[in-house]
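Hey, quick one: can you model this chain's 3D structure?
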Amino acid sequence: MNDTMNPTDAETEGDDDRKRSSQLSNDALLARLKKQFKADWNHSKDWRDQAKKDFDFVAGDQWDAKDRSALDDMGRPVITFNRTLAIVKAVAGIEINSRHETVFLPRGTSAGSVKANELLTGASQWMADETDAEDEQSEAFQDCITCGMGWTDSTLNYDENPDGSYLEDRIDPLEMVWDKGAKKKNLKDARRLFRIQKISRAEARDLAREHGWDGEDDSDLHAAWAMSSSDTQEAKPVEERRLREGNADGYDDEDIQLVHAQWIEREPYYRVAGPQGIVEANEAQFKQLLKMAREAGVPLTYTRAIRKVYKQALLGNVILGKVRPGLVKDRFTFQCITGESHRNKRTWFGLISMMRDPQMWANKWLSQTLHILNTTAKGGIIAETDAFEDTQEAQRTYAQPDAITFAAKDAIAKSKIMQKPGAGMPAGYINLLEFAISSIRDVTGINMELLGMRDANQPGVLEAQRKQAAMTILATLFDSLRRYRRNVGRVRLGIIQNYLADDRLIRLSQQDGDGAFKVVQLAKDQTVGEFEVIVDDSPTSPNQKQETWGVITQVLPVFRDMLTPESVMVILEYSPLPTKLVDAFKAMASQPDPEADERKKLADAAAKAKVARDVAAASKDQATADKTKLDGLLDLIMAGAAIPVPTAPPVAAAPGPMLPGEQFAITPPEGAGRELPQLPQLPVGPPAVGDTAAASAPDFGLTLNNQQ
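Sure thing. Here's the predicted structure for all 708 residues.
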């Protein structure tokens, strides 16, 4: 740290290549973004061509145009048994049946246990419910299975709610262009992303207005320089399409092409030590602070650092509006799920890429097998020229089962007519066909057990192990999904903290005791701070519920005596019962019982009466025991026996006082001459063992030698 260094403006001086994108003029910025866009587009061009084929393939269009044309020319059938769609649906179904929930844990708390922020967790679930985010994410995951990439966009929509409502949409993968240098899973290291949108002119104008564009020329809206998802060359300008179509409004439906760009910049900032701690300042703020400090003659302690900032802009033929900060300060709103990585090409591929060859060869060999059957099947005859009386009549009636074909005399006896021999089906074709069909599953690692199609009598343990083995092979794919959902959770956190925490009312998924859902206020003071985003298995998924319920039913008998009605209601949340039925049980359990209080009072009174009876009986028994003990002691006294002196305090015996108001008179022996005084309270507990007959007794006012 120092207090003499002047901040330099090296980042803002010199040519445009040394400037940050946000420091450029609009024309220079557009030129830079166009250059980056075209470089990234060319990098992913081969992937786009393959992705289109993948989407065709999963839809059943599995023949090359040349092969299809050749079969049509030969009059052979084009057979397609689409087995890849079932496998794609199986993997997508696993995702649907094992969805996750996002949990937010506070970061930087004091030592001890950390409790999840229920408000943020509930707000994230509320946002997802409002925009059907789970369905959008499932569609994006299915795109990833198909072509290797799935995309969603998280943003705010002001069309219906002037305060802004959360919107999460699945994006067509072919609309996205990503940084050609990115090579990490889910494009974590991407420096820029572009999205190409084709929308109507009216929608484009409204969107540009939202970004601050105030122009009037609609030709500025169209990004003619950008390749679209269906083009291999630059799109045509609006004017050229107008002349070509002969209709000035012909492009109104879906012809305006916009490019939404998001990128990362690295900007300097300063951390200044002040009386209230360290504050952060950008260059302009720091210059002002430095000037004020020098004028006041106060030393300024600071350090210079670099940080990442996210920027975005809407691009047409010009930059529409202004360059704005990213919606979330620390990440893109475009989020990607990537499949398997192609290291050399720095692209990603899905399951269709692996199933393509087995499926295509299965189709070809099936078509070839059918052709062999058609051409070598037994049928027709071989006959000599004089085998029939009328050759033409024989040709016409021989194949008709209800017609008679007359042969020449002795033609049948002399074997002048014989069946054509059939070549039969080569065994190799059948084996190849079976191999191709089984390879469709083998290359993906998805076995018959995972598809639920194993028709064999095998132990359930073995079937479960084979399902687990298949899931292990797919683990990398689902790991990308979990990472993607964690990134989406961070985007939601930023949107909640910066935009939605405006005291609006939201519904949480938790229920009150009466079965009603909680409605809370999304206040800013309850959402500030740093949080860790945890993606956990959701208990709402059918498969997860089934597994959890299986474990619960095994351990439930052990805790049967410890259960309460409240705990039973919690357990029902994890049961595979329908949600409506579980809610009905909760409502029944939460309804007040008018007789419950009376029964409780009667039960409490009965319990108290029983305790009183037990105490009275115990007291009576103790009194009887004490009286018996006292009588024995008095007999010893009257007989002149030695009473041992207690040498230790009572240990376990219950206290044995005389009953209140009860007195005993001791008749002295003959010759004593007068009545003995009243006895004090006897000692408590059993007497200690003594070893002398002359030991001292408690002070009764008399001695043990029959003397007063």
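One thing worth noting: Confidence is low (pLDDT under 50) at residues 1-14, 246-252, 641-708.
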